[in-house]
Amino acid sequence: MSTVSRPLNDEEVFSEMNKMVAFIRQEAMEKAREIKVKADEEFNIEKAKIVRQESINVEEQFRRKVKQAEVRQRILTSTLINKSRLELLRERQEMLDSVFAEAQTELARVPDNKDEYRKLLVGLCVQALEQLNDAKVKVRGRKADADLVRAAVAEAAEIYTKRTGRAVDASVADDPLPDSVLGGVRVSALGDRITVDNTLLARLSLSSDRMLPQLRNILYGQSPNRKFFN
After folding, report:
1. Domain count, the chain
2. 94 has a pLDDT exceeding 60
3. What are the pLDDT digits (tens) for 34-86?
4. Same-domain status, 32 and 66
5. Which GO molecular function annotations are given, in alphabetical order (predicted)?
6. What is the pLDDT of residue 1?
7. Is 200 a domain residue?
């Protein structure tokens, strides 16, 4: 015998609908939770990426700024060192110039002692004659030293002949040297093509060049960077 189903009444229909709504709501809530969890995970992952990238950017900027600061510091240090070195070199050069200026002042007084100056002129003339080693030379001196130079040339020619066994025609030129040479002689041969400058100023300059390293050591001490010595 079969059972005939009866239609649901309103109350039962309403109850079934409520169950379906509750089920759908539950499904929706679970789905929403899943979406939220997934969204939170993706957000946290993306957030971590952004934070990591920003950290990298900040570190890179920091390193770049530190490097720039180090470069500026090196440039500043180098500039200050160079400035100090140049200032020291300038002061040292001024001191050396002062020493040679004093020497030049003292040298200008040499001709005041006529006897000693005449001997000096003879020695300078003999040295020039031996360097030129020519049969005919012209000797120039200052106008103020004309008499002393003539006497010195004659004596020097005799000394040269005795030493070498060769005669020399040594004459005093008509055009004198300027007073700025301080004294001494300038001897030339072969039509002035070869000249020995034995003026006092030239000898001071030559001595200055030779004595400069020694004078620097005396004034400033030995340089720790110097590896070779004369």
Report:
1. 2
2. yes
3. 888 888 888 888 888 888 888 898 888 889 999 998 999 999 899 989 888 88
4. yes
5. proton-transporting ATPase activity, rotational mechanism
6. 47
7. yes
Domain coverage including residue 36? 18-107
Strand-pairing partners, residue 150, are: none
Distance CA 186, CA 134 (A): 15
In a domain, 197, yes or no: yes
Residue pair 198/184 in contact by the 8 Å Cβ criterion: yes
**Judging by beta carbons within 10 Å of its beta carbon (0-12, 13-18, 19+), is residue 205 exposed, middle or buried?**
middle
Dihedral class, residue 194 (left if φ above 0, else alpha if ψ from -120 to 50, else beta)? beta
Do both 154 and 64 map to the same domain? no
Mean pLDDT for the stretch of residues 117-143: 96
How do residues 15-35 score in pLDDT, each as one tens digit? 888 888 888 888 888 888 888
Tokens of 122: 């003879």
Side-chain half-sphere CA neighbours of 128 within 13 A: 29
H helices present in 8-145, as ranges: 10-107, 114-132
One domain, residues 175 and 88: no
Give the closest residue to 187 by CA, choosing from 230, 124, 142.
Answer: 124
Gap between the Cα atoms of 198 and 212, Å rounded: 20
Are 84 and 148 part of one and the same domain? no
152 membership: H or E segment, kind and range: helix 146-164
* Dihedral sign, Cα of residue 120, residue 193, residue 143, residue 182: negative
User: Which segment of 80-84, 111-115, 178-182 scores lowest on mean pLDDT?
Assistant: 80-84
